[in-house]
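In the laboratory, one determines a bound structure by crystallizing the protein with its ligand and collecting diffraction data. In a computational setting the workflow is compressed into a single prediction: the sequence and the ligand go in, and a structural description comes out. We illustrate the idea with arginine.
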Amino acid sequence: MGFKEEISALLGKATGLDENEVLSAIEIPPSQELGDYAFPCFVLSKKLRKSPKDIAEDLAKKIKASFIERTEAKGGYLNFYVKQEEYAKAILEEKPGFGKKKESIMVEFSQPNTHKEFHVGHLRNVFLGDSIVRMLRNQNYKVIPANYLGDIGTHVAKTLWCLKKFHADEKPDKNKGKYLGKVYMEANKKVKENEAYKKEVSELLQALEKREKEITALWKETKEWSVKEFKEIYEDLGIKFDTWFYESEEDEEGKKIALELLEKGIAKKDDGAIIVNLEEHGLGVAVILKSDGTTLYLTKDLSLAKKKFEKYKIDKSVYVIDSRQSLHMKQTFKILELMGFKKEMLHIPYEFVSTKQGPISSRTGNTYLYEDLKERMKEKAYEETKKRRTDWNEAKLKGTSEEVAKTALKIGMLKIDNNHEIIFDEDEWLDMEGETGPYTLYTAARIHSVFRKGNVKDVEKPDYTKLGTSEDKNILRILEKEKENIMKAAETYKPSMITRYLLDLSQSANEYYHKHQVLKADEETRKARLYLLKKILESLERNMELLGITPLEEM
Ligand code: ARG
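The predicted complex, in structure-token form:
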């Protein structure tokens, strides 16, 4: 039982309130001067017909326990100060809990389109999805990470058309994915300038949808180029998928569903097309089959959604997709519901990434390709590390700068709440100071280095009275929140909460050894501080792992 629970029990007895009610009312004050826990007495003033101030003063006199150092009535609050040594012991000796086995959830994320470039904007989705998978697993959900490649449609037709028409006798030997991205951009430009080209593209798409031999061969060959590139990127970033879905494989089943909807009277014919009128739900009119019989993005999502539940026996289906597709997702879920397919499905939207030069867009060419970007950031991290680590060999410098670059990207992307736009800024993200990835990596590496320097192998439970300063308290107050923070972050799909925790703990840890000697302190204090550092390190590394960050022992 934590202090919060013990205090709730005491307050429950003293006031006659339900313990759980008290528990949910108890707050952790914003600064340690206001106590470790606070009870807002206004929740009682109606019942007792007394002012919060009087209630607080009354209770302050009544409530006593051996772990409570003192209480204080202030501003209608009753503040509790726990004996610091007991507080330290309780927090540092708490085991990270896992909870019981939970339901199975499929998390669909990344979903890039083939025959297009992979740019920095795509990374936000990848990092969000991967971190959500990790957080849910930590909470003991059974998680199936899934990808859904956009391997068919107008964008593919454009690229193939341009390849055939203008690049027929070229054969790229490497960076084929990047090559396709370039061709795609070129195609966009050309199509915009010439009406006749548009028609050619749409003819090509029809041939492709009918799987005509020649174009299908080219499609399959080039699709592999993209898929190979994507897989390299995932490998590079340590991202794993258990299942791969493809838009091109959802056509047929999608068509069947559209016809079934028509038969059931949920959909109707309109000018040859099949539509579902969702106006009464505020979701407009959704076309689910074109008049030429071809399917749409939405049609395929109907089929995919069913497949996920039927084939994978999941309890819940989560989609990490750009907020611009919110209407699309609502239409998908609503149509399924009208069909009687009532399952737990959730869209997790996020805002886009732009640069100081404006939004990232494959059409305008402001793309920040992942490949280029990563090389550049690695190079910068390399230069920076080399300056500090003149004695390191090439391999060590390279390995370290690779992790620094990746962590800079992850923290940069994940520190912002899903609902806010990100302005990508590689130099700021790479900075060793400030709220960055390198800063958290450095914090953990610095603790490792203290242990190396002091030749410390094991730490034992210390004399907790030696952790009595307000900087100790600051750290303990952060550590106390870890468990609940992870739980909330997982339940609300917000890796930004984990990032916040990491940055706060890093900052307090750095302040700590700025202020206090560790290795040079007297024997007992040294032991206690090393123990605290060890706990900080474990917590940092545990939370890094939830963001897919690999900690470094040296930096
Ligand atoms: N490939 C699509 C795009 O880039 C995203 C797919 C999202 N997932 C889905 N089930 N609709 O726009």
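The radius of gyration is 29 Å. Keep in mind that any predicted model is a hypothesis to be tested, not a measurement.
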